[in-house]
Write a structure and sequence with these properties.
By secondary structure, this protein is of the alpha/beta class. Helices cover 41% and strands 16% of the residues.
Length: 343
Amino acid sequence: MKILDLRSDTVTQPTLAMRQAMMEAEVGDDVYGDDPTVNELQRQAAERTGKEAALLVSSGTMGNLLGVMSQTRRGDEVILGARAHIMTHEAGHLAQICQCMSRTIDHPDDRIYPQDIRDAIRPDDIHEPPSSLLCLENALSNGTVVSLPLLRQDYETAKALGLKVHLDGARLFNAAVSLNVQISELAACADTVTFCLSKGLCAPVGAMLCGSCDFIAQARRDRKKLGGGLRQAGFLAAAGLLAMNQMSLRLAEDHEHARLLAAMLNELDGFDVDENRLDINMVFFTTQPPLDEQRLVRELRNQGILVNPPDHGVWRLVTHYGIERADLGRIAALFERCGKECR
């Protein structure tokens, strides 16, 4: 029985081509800066995002941590969305490690608008923490993407107010595909940007942090402080090159599968799909009571379908390289059958 894991696109497995490339990778010691495969990955990531330099880090969380840590001072205030990944799913590093205050913007659509930035920035007053950084996100964790015009407006507003801007682009390639733009156009709306090589791009480990040469030099030093100095990391970089240059080309397929699966689920009794959150490879839906949600998760697992339980009543399914078009009918049928059994 084929296991279909819909919990996240973090569960993707490296492709056979990646495994071969990892085995054959030319490596060196990256702390000395002499791993040729890492250097090539960093060069290409900088080129793709339109930035001066890039740094390979172990995860998107580390990339965001360095994005904040390397351009703020202790006691600074960071402006970001109330449900931004940095705020809610990165173990509180904003406070614990960066020692920054957070000033959150809470919109139902999770977007940040120019006036929000103007309203959130602190005056030059010794009683208040200085505002120094705006953190944006694209794609958003809610399954939607922020339009390029809005990103540009936010960036221009932030810069006019003297703020630096970091973009959490964990699924930056997904956002670019959805908007039909280049990732460099999105990255141009920030001073620094991070994107994951894992998730939908299928690399086993890693993310890229991109920005100016001076910023990356500081981030490299800060990465070392965190224990993130990499040695023979070319094995990982070899997979990252294929992730960035090949696997990014098939993301539209994941988006299409999400829309198809959403349509199938929406036809089932008791399932209500949020059709406004289908920009990328995620499907969000609610189920009508009575339903034993925990039992449904168990029953689906018994049938080879792995899902997370709902978060505050909302289910999320994520399509990726391991989910083929032919699998979608099986997924919907099992949700229907198991759903009936759990009522």
